[in-house]
Amino acid sequence: MIERKIVNDRITEFTVEKYLRESMRDVPIERTTYDKTPLGERITIYTSAPGLVIGREGSNIKKVTKNLRAEFGFENPQVKIGEVAEPSLSAPIVAKIIANSLERFGSQKFKLTAFKAISSTMYAGAMGIEIRITGKIPSSRAKSWLFNKGYLKKTGYVSDFLVDHAKDHVTLKTGVVGIKVSIMKPNTPLPDKIEYTEDYKTVAEAVGIPEEKIEEIVAESLGEEVSKETSSTSEEVKEWRN
Which of 89, 124, 126, 144 has its CB surrounded by the most CB atoms within 10 Å? Predict the structure, then answer.
């Protein structure tokens, strides 16, 4: 029963988020959360433009609350606004900004729009970003344009779970244009990144290796040349490693 309740809550959260994104097409929404409380249902919308969600004197948020009550049968829905720390590092927000720009200015300046998004994201400290725009731009024949900068993982665990992916679309005169954004945020843990400490005494005490052999291990791992004095102990180092 508990598992079924968790699954139903997640389905409701997904349905509510899809409904809010469709009903507020022009609002850059990063994500939404849904929580069932004793006082009612609490929906939090994380967006970089809270003014568009709230509206003048709260008119939009009242309308959203009324629609949620009618659409999903919520008894007492409470809509709140969540803060997005850095909108330029959020793939859904960047994709929505590109879509709004294409809808406003057309497909003639799509390259400038993509380069502006890349510049703002990299300036915010991202490790890498990739933008793919597909559609009939700028000609009448469909093409796929790729814009990227920095370092971005494409496969593996990092790409699947740590890289922020988002998709969006916009309808122009020439047809539907698809937008796909991938951002690798700063300080993303990479499995192939190894950091060495200079505190050899601490390492020696923790691992159990004599302090005089730590320098040789580090130098050999970094591909540096080992001095003649320490080269004689290479066999002992291998024994310590094993």
Answer: 126
